[in-house]
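Z., the sequence and structure:
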Amino acid sequence: MKRKILILFSLTILFLLSLVTMGYGQENVKQSCITAKCHVNFGKAKFVHGPVAVGECISCHQLLPKEDHKFQPIKNVEEQCNKCHEPMAKKGTVHAPVAKGECAKCHDSHQSDRQFQLKKSSTSDLCFSCHPKNLITKKFTHGPAADGECLSCHLPHMSEKPQLLTKASNDLCFQCHTDFQESFAAAKNIHKPAGENCAQCHNPHSADARFLLASNTPDQCYTCHAAIQTSATKSTVKHVALDEEKKCLACHSPHTANHIKQLTEEPMALCLKCHDKSLVEKGNKLSDMKTLFDKNINWHGPIRERDCSGCHEVHGSQNFRLLTQTYPPEFYTPYASEKYELCFNCHQNTLAQDPTTMTLTGFRDGSRNLHYLHVNKKVKGRTCRACHETHASNNDRHVRELVPFGQWMLPVKFEKEHNGGKCSPGCHAPFSYKRNKSETRIEKTDEE
């Protein structure tokens, strides 16, 4: 009998305990949706939204009516989020989802394995759910973009800078490219796009050109320098330096320089890096200019100023030898003033047009203009190079020491005198001239 009573008592205790347990579970279901069988996965992720973590579903959801287990949909997500989160002051550049109040475009309102409850497994995957992925699929990819670190450069909600950048364009780039920041601070000249915005030339995500250039050189340069493009591509005579691998960068620095026009060196020194030896380009023989300058003391005016561009167009020209203006390519040519625009840019054009003069030139025999005599002929007028070396000479007025005659180089044998001079080119007898004829007669009388 006692044994039956003990068994009955034990069963009673077990029944009561089961009732207590069932009651406790029912109470929890009422208190939190995440303990119910429907929402058991909520609260299990690495990052759980605060209200979800404490079971306060009704912080965001309103259950109406309770017996139907249906929720009032959230009509204004942004307003709901702003009840707890500080509202975004929509100024400057605002990310489109933020501007539209679509917080849930990027954030999971319940939980996520990503910090800030981001919806995707990585920042870049999240960004590419809206932005085209071909931003980073080209041959060369910027480091942060390749690593999926969009937030290295961009803010996710808003920014006072364009493109949601964390800093002004160049300041942002200098965070990593400190060497450029130092060179910018020390340079005399900064390339205008480089000083304003690196992205004018470089693609910050990916590019098919090296150094993340938007396009290859020289096309990248031509986007701004249209006049240079015309000169370099449409001219009859093109500078062969533009055919080299480095193109524009053979002479110009794209970021900073201590010389004019972003040149990598002082202008004349830059030219002599190539013109320091005899060259043959497209059938044309080019002299060793460095040796010519080293061996001759009297330099032409533009050369004294160390400015080859005084006479030469460095990219391309319609004139031979890349000259900036017209000059006859022939040794002999009928005279016309328009053929000598280059020379008459500095020298008076009447120099070769007036048969007599006492003022235009010292190269005269009395009043007889010897420039006119040599140059101004209808058939066989001599060009300036017949007597003058256009770059440098050891003689006064750049008079040549040798003159071309067919395949030969014949000596000019010029001698300067205080009242004129004389020369005997090749095998000719000496020709002399006297500016002051009366002085000539006195000299002869004295000698006699």
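DSSP finds 17 helices and 23 strands in the chain. Residues 29-86+93-119 form one domain.

Let me know what you think.
H.
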